[in-house]
Amino acid sequence: MSQSRKVYGLGAEFESAASLMSAAEKIRDAGFSHWDVHTPFPIHGMDKAMGLGKSNLSAVVFVGGLLGFLTGISLVTIPSFFIYPMIVHGKPYTWATLPAFFPIIFELTVLFSAFTAVGTMFAMNQLPRLHHPVFNWDRFTRFTDDGFLMVIEARDSKFSESRTKALLEEIGAKNVTLIHD
Amino acid sequence: MADSSVKLETPHELVRPALVDHGRSIQWVTENVSNIVESSTPKWWLLSFCITSPIALMGLICIVYQISNGVGVWGENHPNGWAWDITNFVFWIGIGHAGTLISAVLFLTRQKWRTSINRAAEAMTLFAVVCAGIFPAIHVGRVWYAWFLAPIPNTNAIWPNFRSPLLWDVFAVSTYFSVSVLFWFVGLIPDLATLRDRAKSRVAQIIYGVLALGWRGGNRQWRHYEMAYLLLAGLSTPLVLSVHSIVSFDFATSIMPGWHTTIFPPYFVAGAIFGGFAMVLTIMLPAARIFPQINDMITRNHVDKMAKIILLTGSIVGYAYLMELFVAWYGANKFEGFTFFTARANIDGKGWYQWAYWIMMFCNVISPQIFWFKKMRTNYVVVFVVCQFVNVGMWFERFTIIVTSLAQDFLPSSWGHYSPSTTEILTFVGTFGIFLSLFLLFMRFLPMIAISEVKGVTPEADPHNHHLKH
Question: Distance (Å) from the C-alpha of residue B241 to the closest C-alpha of chain A?
């Protein structure tokens, strides 16, 4: 890779989940904002160690579920109550017979919520994405095996090639590497 | 005041057994699960596939034959308008429930032992639902009109009847299938990334690369990922309970004696979990034999726990059977009493299908009672044999419910025997071929154990464990 290319950031490797977690706390306290840790599995407590709050995905899913619920109500009531008001199965078309319509309303609520959850998760995580600069780091793919990695992006205002590298090495990082775009 | 210098140690008997045996490292997990996919095709796999795929093909030929000739090629006739077709549908859809139960309900209840079996169980769910969907679809007769079930205003502006349990079924089963696919795929993404990063051939790199969607495992991704997974689990839990409840409504909302009971939804759900766990073990025990390395992840402890669930749900099912008999007697409804005591249990010698009823009773209620003994729960041969009894028993349960009620209902003049046609039998056998072929393909091309989740329950994954270095 030619050195003239733009620097994306610095990659660092840590020994274990525990050492990565304490390193993350230090990077958080140093005031970095554009950085991430890449791990084979979600590490419990890492959100706090990185200073991240609760994901607000659930709020979006609530809206999706509500939409499904309203779709379900409209789908079953409009044809059965207004377009063809008929007594079927001995069940009249009043609101008192809503239990007979409930299964479909429920299923649509779940269906819409589930698709919203997955779609929103993809959007928030910027997936699918066929390429990303972090893959230019030859050791990056270790994160799907047993690597505990940290990447600090160059666009962070605190980033400096030499000082950030020194900081990472000080907090126990190995193989600190420059990643190019 | 307690002395703070006293070291608190968990008493020996309260220490939970390790979820991964032999203290394997996370690197070992990656290596040994990916290896199943990456190594060259084993001989036993080719041999099994050579057996299952012609059976699947035979099933497909029967389906084509049925579609081109009409439902007359089946043994169904008045008064048995439903028989093997709906029996098979309920049988397969019931099996499908274990996967979601393991992935969603055990996830919400923080049962960490689910991690090594959830992937295969979810795959099994999808394939079972595929097999289940075949039967009601072709049972409608003119399959090309099946789209009438969808709520689309057609040229005559006719809408489906939203008050019909059969339409509820369409919504429930299709939602269940879609949500199960989503749940399964979301769980697969990190493991597909593992296969992507290990792939040697260009083709594998491209396929797994595209399927992994560019997963980077950043904590900023895991945060949303875990929330999405939690929400899917929370949504799937009521969904899985609703699906089999709705399947039971097909019967419970009718007026047939033996069907018209309020106990059906919980009884069907318990039966579905019961039959589903038996099928999970039916598949996983041979798999653990073929791939000895997964024995460290699917341990005796796991099998023991699954056997306990089979015992619990089997006993709930047994309770439901007895309660049905009690209510038939206590309710003093002549027809209800006739269905249970004559048509099914045959205490007066006038029933036709007592063999089905007593096979069901033996297989579902008596055989799992052996699981009260830990020695039996951890003996793979015993577990496998009992699971086969359960598989058979659960099929006979649905057969008993459907056929005994229809064959001998209110008027003796309208009674009629039922026997399946060859096409019907071969179609059912064919679905086993479809199910097993799909499962074999899954084992060969996708990680059958959730790699990232198993890693997450190893001691190494504990961020407070500073002693372990790898």
Answer: 11
A64 and A30, same structural domain? no
Give the three-state DSSP class for B56.
helix
Q: Give the tens place of pLDDT for each residue, A2-59.
A: 456 789 999 999 999 999 999 999 999 999 999 999 999 999 899 999 999 889 999 9
Domain range spanning residue A99? 57-124
CA distance B113 to B119: 12
Reference A159, options A34, A11, A14, A12; nearest CA is A34
| Residue where one domain finishes, among candidates A124, A142, A167 | A124
Q: State whether ipTM is beyond 0.90.
A: yes
In chain B, count H helices and then E strands.
Answer: 18, 0
Cβ-defined contact of A18 to B461 (cutoff 8 Å)? no
3-state secondary structure B82-125: CCHHHHHHHHHHHHCHHHHHHHHHHHHCCCHHHHHCHHHHHHHH
| Whether residue A152 is found in the same domain as residue A140 | yes
B-chain residue closest to A97, CA distance: B163
Q: What pTM, to 2 d.p., does this model score?
A: 0.92
Any chain A CB within 8 A of the CB of B211? no
Residue B202, H or E segment: helix B202-211
pLDDT in tens, B194-248: 999 999 999 999 999 999 999 999 999 999 999 999 999 999 999 999 999 999 9
Domain at B20-461: CATH code: 1.20.1630.10
CB of B296 within 8 Å of any CB in chain A?
no
Q: How far is B334 from chain A (nearest CA, A)?
A: 24
pLDDT of residue A1: 46
Mutate to test the interface with B, among A35, A95, A125 (most CBs of B within 10 A): A125
